[in-house]
Amino acid sequence: MAEVEYIKLRRSLLDLYQDFPLFCLASQDNYVLYKPSGTPLDQIIKKGELHPTLFIHQEDRIPSLQKIQGQFNDKLKDNIIGGETTLIKDTLCNLVGETLEEPRSGALNALPETIDIMMHGVSGNPEVLNALATVAFTDYTTIMHSVNVMALTMGFCYFYDYPDEDIRRLSLSALLHDVGKTEIPPDILKAERKLSAQEFAVMRTHTTIGADIIHSNDGIDTDVVRGAMEHHEKLDGSGYPNKIKDISEDGQLLGIIDCYEALTNEERLYRRAKSPFDTLGLLKDDLLAGKFSKIFFAKFCTSLL
Ligand SMILES: [Fe+2]
Ligand SMILES: [Fe+2]
Question: Looking at the domain covering 128-304, what would its CATH class be?
Answer without folding.
Answer: mainly alpha
